Amino acid sequence: MVGSASAESQLSARPFQLVCWDLDGTLTDSVRFVVDTANLVITRRGRTALDFDVVGRMTGLPLEDIFRLAWPDLTDEDAVACRTEYRTIYDETVIPATRLFDGAREALRAFHAAGLLQATVTGKRAADCERILRGLEIDADIDLYLGGDSVPPDRHKPAPDLVVLAMDRLGVQPERTAVIGDTRTDMRMGKAAGARTIQVLWGYEREPVPEADLTVATWDALRARILTG
User: Fold this and answer.
1) CATH for the stretch 31-97
2) pTM (whole model) above 0.70
3) What residues contact residue 107 under an 8 Å CB cut-off, 6+ apart?
4) What are the residue ranges spanned by the domains of the chain?
5) Is residue 9 classed exposed, middle or buried when 0-12, 13-18 and 19+ CB atoms within 10 A define those classes?
6) Stretch 16-28: mean pLDDT, rounded?
7) What share of the chain in percent tops pLDDT 90?
8) Confidence of residue 2 (pLDDT cuts 50, 70, 90)
9) CB atoms < 10 A from the CB of 135, how many?
10) 3: exposed, middle or buried (C-beta count within 10 Å: 0-12, 13-18, 19+)?
11) Which of helix, strand or coil describes residue 170?
């Protein structure tokens, strides 16, 4: 009982109880894969590939938003066809090639060992995110997988719904929740949910954005911010 009380005391003293993770560009070094896969679909269908930065800044948003940059008049039927082709390519070639950033595994395990809850809040389908992280053997550290299909189609990032859903399901208040991501969209989502936002500088955005409460450039710095404030 004494040990249990001590552990609860340590957890309550920590600045955060819940960490909500973005995936591409935050946990996994995969923004290039998103861009290349989208452009492969676009060029196969006769259009010019989009610039890396144009697609990169949209990572985490619905795929249809990216494809509408190539086809402003994209029909719902064509959007489904593009999305299906994208996911087929991604399943066959990208998921097996996806890797964690160096330092991600250690951070996930450190937070888990400290008793923190962890959830994904990615634009990917929840099942795809779970498949990727299970394949990387870190699934035991994640308490809840949420993705773009976990919320209504009109409530994707930067709407707060993914973070709000994670907090509701895991029973954590906004002020004890950290949203970690690499883009302005991630930070806007966290802000709208009332959580603390932490931008990592090893993903797509390499300069701090104003929506971030904190920015970190190394995994050591991130661990320190989460565990000690």
Assistant:
1) 1.10.150
2) yes
3) 219, 222, 223, 226
4) 2-28+100-228, 31-97
5) exposed
6) 97
7) 88
8) very low
9) 12
10) exposed
11) helix
